[in-house]
Design a protein that fits this description.
Low-confidence stretches: none
Shape: globular
Number of helices: 5
Radius of gyration: 17 Å
Strand order of the largest sheet: 1-11-7-15-5-4-2
Largest sheet: 7 strands, antiparallel
Number of strands: 15
């Protein structure tokens, strides 16, 4: 599987990042352009059956998180995973810093992903958080946040490895915003094969009469009705 850092930067650069940032502001999630070709998606999906590439497997039903499985890669990431993560970080960084400024929070993220991960490891967050997720008929994922420790990057990306409506049905990506003194707002997104979806790790800035506040958000996956749904999860902080 040949996937160079330069190629990853080219594909990530094909997204209109100003438009993505505006949509992310409004909804808490926004799609990228194509990041992987169908054949590359298939190659990545087959890695799930190579347990030596992963540090652990999580059975969702066992932990009452839903139904299905996911596996965390070791730090020895496959080339496309490492390249996409490195190419996406500098595109997401200005959005993360802007959100932090609006919310009056620190913005501890350096220009370099490598330096940020060094800070995570120094703080005891030294386990890889990159994920391959696998869902079959009847599987689902409960609403949650991927925080993993005190050091958190506020955005993450999921990349669809199977084709919605062809390889599987159901299994929409869910995002639910808890609104103060109001009913929660939900968004359901059908992921496009090879495309990414950028979404908030835990909250987004929401304008109020008094300025900006944090709109708490959680994400999950609706019930897969048929077929097999596999995705790649790119997280920009490591786990404790």
């Amino acid at each position: 599987m040949r996937f160079t850092p330069a190629e990853a930067r080219r594909r990530v650069g094909g997204t209109d990042w100003a438009a993505l940032a505006a949509e992310l502001d409004e909804h808490g999630c926004a799609p990228t352009g194509p990041l992987l070709a169908p054949g590359e998606c298939a190659d990545l999906a087959t890695l799930y059956d190579r347990p030596g590439l992963f540090r652990t497997t999580v059975d969702l039903a066992r932990h009452r998180f839903g139904s299905g499985e996911y596996r965390y890669f070791t730090h020895d990431l496959p080339a496309p995973v490492a390249a996409l993560r490195a190419a996406l970080y500098p595109r997401l960084l200005p959005i993360a810093r802007d959100w932090a400024a609006r919310l009056g929070r620190p913005a501890p993220w350096p220009d370099s992903l490598a330096e940020w991960l060094e800070r995570c490891h120094a703080a005891g967050q030294d386990r890889s958080a990159q994920i391959l997720l696998s869902y079959g008929p009847g599987d689902w994922n409960a609403l949650h946040r991927d925080v993993f420790g005190q050091l958190v990057f506020p955005l993450q990306v999921v990349v669809a490895l199977d084709a919605y409506g062809t390889d599987y049905t159901g299994g929409e990506f869910l995002l639910v915003e808890q609104r103060p003194r109001a009913q929660s707002r939900g968004t359901a997104t059908a992921l496009r094969q090879g495309h990414g979806l950028v979404f908030t790790t835990r909250d987004r800035p929401v304008r109020t009469r008094r300025g900006w506040s944090a709109g708490a958000m959680r994400h999950g996956v609706s019930t897969v009705r048929s077929g097999h749904r596999r995705t790649l999860g790119l997280v920009f902080h490591d786990a404790a």
